[in-house]
Every structure is written in C-alpha cells, then in structure tokens.
Amino acid sequence: MQISRNKMLFGFFALSFGFFLETGICAAVQSELRITTIKQEPYTISKGTQLEGFCMDLLSEVAKKLGFKYRVQLVKDGSYGRQDDNGNWNGMIGEVVRGEADLAIAPLTLTAAREKAVGMTKPFMQTGISILLRKDISEGSGFFDFLTPFTAETWVGILIAYLGTAASIFIVARISPCEWSQPQSEQNRFSFLHSLWYTAGALTLQGAGPHPKALSGRVICCSWWFFTVVLLACYFSNLSSSKSSESAQLMVKGFEDLANQDTIEYGCLAGSSTLAFFKNSNNPVYRRIYEHMERTKSFVSSMDEGVRRAKEGNFAFIGESVSLDLAVARHCELVRAHEVVGMRGYSIAAAFGSPLIKNLSVAILQLSEAGELAYLRSKWWASSCIADRTKSSPVQLHSLKGMFLVLSLGLGLGALLAVLELTSKSRRGAVEQRKSCCTVLTEELSLRLRTSNASRPQENVDKDKEKA
Asked: Site (Interaction with the cone snail toxin Con-ikot-ikot): which residue positions (predicted)?
C-alpha cells in the first residue's frame, strides 16, 4: 500500500516536472517568434538589408505591447496562401499550418477558408474589391457638362443676381428723372423685358443698347459689368480645369459596366481572394466577370504586373481597393473606380488555436482606438497627386461672396442715387407749384411706377383743353 502511494506521488511529480519543462520550452520558443511576410509596397519593402513598411511598423508596435521578440523571414514561394485540390496550403498560410512560422503578417485577407486552416486576428485594415484603370479611358461628355464649373447653389445665386439687377435697372430707369424726364409724354426706354435683355447682353460681354443716361443707372450697370467679368473669369478657368481632368471620369464606373463591355480587357491576381470572391459569388454580374477571366486567362502573377498593364492602357485591373489606392497615389495617370464591393479585412495569421490570437486582436484594437493605425495609413499612403484631384472641383457659392457683396452695394447705391435725383426734381417742382416736397415726390413716384397708362394724366389734360 505504501509502495503504491509512493508510486503515485512519484508519477504526480514527474508529470508536474514534465509540464513545467514543456511550458518553459514553449516560452523559450515563443520568446523569439518566427514571422513570415511577403514583399509588397507599402506593407513590406526592402531598404538595404532591412525590411520596412506598414506591416513592419505594425509588427513593431504589437511586439512592444505584447513584449515578444521576433525574426522576420520572407515567404519561400512568394504566395499569400491558397489551398489546392488535395487540401494543402501554399504561401504564408501554408508555412503557418506546417509550423514553419509562428505568425504571418501581410495584407492577408480574412476569408472563411483561411479561418478554418489558421487563426486570424481582428482586421487591422478594411478593404474591398474595386477596379483600376488609366485616366484616359474616359466617358463621353454629358449634355450638361458645361454647368459643372459651378455648384447648383452658385447657379441659383447667379440667377437671383441676374433677375435682381434687371429689376433694379427697370425701377431706377423709371424713378430717375435724368433717365425719364417726362413720364406724361415720353415712353420709357427700359421696359422690364428690355432690362432683362440688357442685363443678359452684359453677361455675355456683347452689350445691348440703349445704355442708361442717368448716373444711378450707370452705377448699377458698372457694378453688374464688374460682377460678370469676374464671374466669367472664374467660369472659364474652372471649365478649362474640369476639361483637362475629365479623363478621371471613368467610362467604367463599376463592375456592371465592366461586364457589359468587351473593349477593355480585365483581370485579377491569380490565386487571390479576389478571384475566389468572383468564383464563389451567385451574383450574375460577378459570375460573368469570373467566366470571362477564366475564358481569356487574363490573370496577372503579381500586383506590380497588374499595375503595369493598367498603365499601358486598355486593361482594367481588379484588386483590393487599399492596394489600388496606393497605385493611384504612386502613379498619377491611374484612377480607381468609385464602386467597392466585397468588403473584408486584412488580418494577422497564427497557428490554429494559438493563444497569441486573442492578445494580438486586443493589441490591434488598442492601436486602432489610439489612432496609430490611421497614422500608419497616412504615412505609407502619402500621395503627390492629391493636389491635382482638387483642381477641378466646382466653385462654391461662398467663394464668390465678395462679388455678390460688391454687386449688392452697387444696386443699393444706384437706387439711392435715383431717389436723390427724383427728390431734387421734386423740390424744384414743389417751389414752382407751391406744394410740399413730399406731395410732389409722392405724385412723381405714383406716376412713374405705374406699369401702364402712364400717359393717362396727359390725356386727361388734353380732354380738359378740348372741353374748354
């Protein structure tokens, strides 16, 4: 009995020693993790004998948080990871599955197939599938492209300014005695229709007579001429910029446009998750795209080859939107379509069931919440083409507020001068007729602002003379 008890104690101590020994060995192994990656700008690029890039900076930040050392090695076959017909994995996923690497850090798309083979962390970057083309593959001009230099609000403001100026000229031409001295017998030259015509003529720099004779009318016209000169300068300048960059407006705006044409060849990276997305999709448009790529064998072997073929023209490269954004930032002759489908994320891969997955996911979330991931994105995706993209943006209404202010002041000043001119005449008439100035001014305004029958007082005077 005592012997069996001693054997049990000995066995317990042996198992405990073995457990702690194994834990120590694992800890020793995990103290320097083997990291596999792949060269792809800007995630991992060579600088002399060292590697740098977005993934290397991310790995450094994660290692600081979790306190581990690491050794980076490039994947031997240069692949991300694809499962063959026998169920075997190649690329970085294969190295992690076979135990040749502890972690795979690269733009590895989180997919269901990969999740079954290895452990994947929370995504450190969101992406989708889009289209990369050369800018000179552009759409035909629309019927109303001439309106694009200004926004809709700006056009509404210009229309209001046009109608307001025409109305001001019409009113001032009736009020000012220098413009319309004898309303009883003379016909006013500036009807409302003629005021609209005159203002439109000035807007097109053509001119339409007769011109105002009164100082008040001339002040309004000068204000409108200044407004039109600056306005036309802004319009033609922005129109020229929009025409020079109209090639950025793609004929292929999305995947349906791509599938419905046969002029532009298109393809994606062979063996990529992008290809798997189209292959496994039940969407008829996506199925047509996949069948076309399979039929024409228009796949590319690398991201660089896809970008190169897109730069050569007549080829649309389908790939991850984040990678395509980088290509656009590096090559200003390229542009990415606006449509993005199949949103997914890039994750770090580890062995299936590894305890590192949880800690890595927490570290990635902490970096995201602290803004570190956004900083790394802006650092490695910096573009020299951003300034060119904003060159042809439509002119906003607030950008022309100075012009509208000058025009408003000119209209107000012209109206004030017209009232002063009429007041001066009314004062002289009040002295002659021995009436108050206000009475004469009221009669003059009433007479001049009538839209019709302005000569009725004169007709009444003639009838009185006949009766006498």
From this structure: 279
